[in-house]
Amino acid sequence: MAILVMTPWRGVGSTLIFGPVVWLAASYLYSMWLITPDPFNLVTHLILVSLVGLVVVILITIFIVKVFTRLQRQRIADQVIHGA
């Protein structure tokens, strides 16, 4: 969900900024749909979903950085080999 919302923005910084915001908003809306008599249960659910979302966003960001770093190294190696 966060990836679909974040696609208009580019860069790792925007992923780190907008990812948790999107997850917080989504978890808040999802929690409001749940009918729970205990407010503590709602807050606990909100915190857990937010933390899981934050971990997922961080893992996706690490993956993106690794892929871009690998592509950058490959591009530099190609330039050295072909003398560009």
Topology at a glance:
Elements: H1 2-6, H2 12-33, H3 39-82
In a nutshell, what does this entry contain?
This protein is mainly α. It has three helices and no strands.
What attributes characterize this protein structure?
mainly alpha
Describe the protein in words.
By secondary structure, the protein is mainly alpha-helical. It has one domain. Helices cover 85% and strands 0% of the residues. The chain is rod-shaped, with a radius of gyration of 19 Å.
Shape, please?
A: rod-shaped
Poorly predicted regions are 1-9
Computed Rg: 19 Å
Count structural domains: 1
Counted beta strands: 0
Instruction: Let me know the largest β-sheet.
Output: none
Mean pLDDT, as a whole number?
71
- Per DSSP, the total helix count is 3
- Percent of residues in helices comes to over 70%
The share of residues in extended strands comes to under 5%
| Structural class designation | mainly alpha
SSE order, one letter for each helix or strand: HHH
Tell me which oligomeric state these chains represent: single chain
